[in-house]
């Protein structure tokens, strides 16, 4: 069996992702469904799968790099019996009956007869029997970000997501979901070119910018204008929240920039919720000669 790195066309220091991409590209090219009756393509397909069985498994890859197993994945520990009947490489007729003390020479002949009778072995055979072989890979995952309004974050519920391929999916946003949280939608990714399961869709939640509220952790901040008369004498103002307006009392002689804290009116997180920080801004309103005259009569 050829060197697995050469078979997949990757360098020996290739990353796991590079090996995976190379395998999928070659497996798709030489898949029997696309090359019916082509014995060379079938052989190449088997080689590609065999190479991926070794390089796609971190343990086997390290064993191969250290020379502990060969390109077929078989142990090299008993590959040379040294003087067994005078045949090169040990064993009768030059055959290697490797596999350690528990190896069975009949396996070699069984493999040979299968190749003579039916061509290359099915690269996915035995995968359901715990033989260590991997089945055909699933489709690629799709990653997408979606902007969720703060109102939906506060209440939870349905939200529509447009996928890169144009599909529209509906997700159920958990109440108080964290900014940057990722939801996995099983089977909503790319289809597998080998007939296996679809990949998944990974949807990352991003808080949409709000026209009224600023975000400070779980707290919200809002700026509310206060008429100068109410700032001096005291009064009340209407303050927006994520669930509607509330009336807030303004203490007498309130300076501009003063911040009032409304407990629990921010974004929920678990059993608790942040606060709403209400920063008051003095609003002079339309020109008022009475107010202007008052200050003119009291210079400084």
What can you see in these coordinates?
With 300 residues, the protein is α+β, with helices and mostly antiparallel strands. The chain has eight helices and 13 strands. It has a four-stranded mixed β-sheet. It has a three-stranded mixed β-sheet with strand order 1-5-4. Strands 2-3 form a two-stranded antiparallel ribbon. Helix 2 (16-30) packs antiparallel against helix 3 (39-55). The longest helix is centred in the first third of the chain and has 17 residues, at 39-55. It is rod-shaped. The termini are far apart. The model is unreliable at 78-133 (pLDDT under 50).
Order of strands in the sheet with most strands? 6-7-13-10
End-to-end distance: 97 Å
Largest sheet entry: 4 strands, mixed
Oligomer: single chain
The total of helices stands at 8
What is the 3D form?
Answer: rod-shaped
Structural class: alpha+beta
Report the radius of gyration as a whole number of Å: 35 Å
Care to count the β-strands? Answer: 13
Q: What is the averaged pLDDT score?
A: 81
Report the uncertain regions.
78-133
Strand content: 15-25%
Query: Which bin fits the share of residues in helices?
Result: 25-40%
Order of helices and strands: HHHHHEHEEEEEEHEEEEEEH
Summarize the structure.
Helix content is 27%, strand content 24%. The chain has eight helices and 13 strands.
